[in-house]
Amino acid sequence: MERPNRYGFVFFLTIIVVSGLLSFALCLAAEFKKSKKNDLRLVGKQCYLPRSSAYKLGIAALICLSVAQVVGNLFTCRQFQSGEHTRGCKIIKPSVSCTLLVLSWISFGLAVILISGATSMSRSQAPGEGWLDGECYLVKDGVYVGSAILGLLALGSTLGSGAIGIRRRQTEENRKVHAQADE
């Protein structure tokens, strides 16, 4: 029976958790660095908004959140593969784990939409161009915080699903060991 590589497990878990928490921290930093109302300048009847540092923070948060989500899901899906080496791919279908993965992807999708929109608004909005239809827009308070919370929900759901997969796999292996011992 093949034992899982503990160093690989710790390595992937570290990447997932660090990327997710870094995304959370970057979102919180972007919330404090976003453009404020007093940053808005009028040039005649046209508005101008300089790029804020929330732009770079938002891009970095998107990258970190994406890394955490993709690596976390690859790791989790690996836990669902059966330990038996048969022809073809036999996959275990746990319902709670699948529900957590769906929740994870929904949370991730909403967080990406919020971060992307807010980050797009944080770039420079030139006079006459603005963000949309020549109008300047400011990011509402709490958008980055909301996306940070959604990112944590996605991370927690992914890790929860992976934990259930690991637990199920360990239980399956223990049953096999006991069955072999009884023979």
From TrEMBL:
PANTHER family: OS07G0462200 PROTEIN-RELATED. InterPro entries: DEAL/Modifying_wall_lignin1/2 (IPR009606), DESIGUAL (IPR052222). Coiled coil: none annotated. It comes from the Eukaryota. This is Protein MODIFYING WALL LIGNIN-1. The keyword Flavoprotein does not apply. The keyword Transmembrane applies. One of its GO terms (cellular component) is endomembrane system. Its main location: membrane. Signal peptide: none annotated. It comes from Sesamum latifolium. Keywords: Membrane, Signal, Transmembrane, Transmembrane helix. It is found in: Endomembrane system. Belongs to the DESIGUAL family. The chain crosses the membrane at residues 53-75, 96-122, 142-166. It is a multi-pass membrane protein.
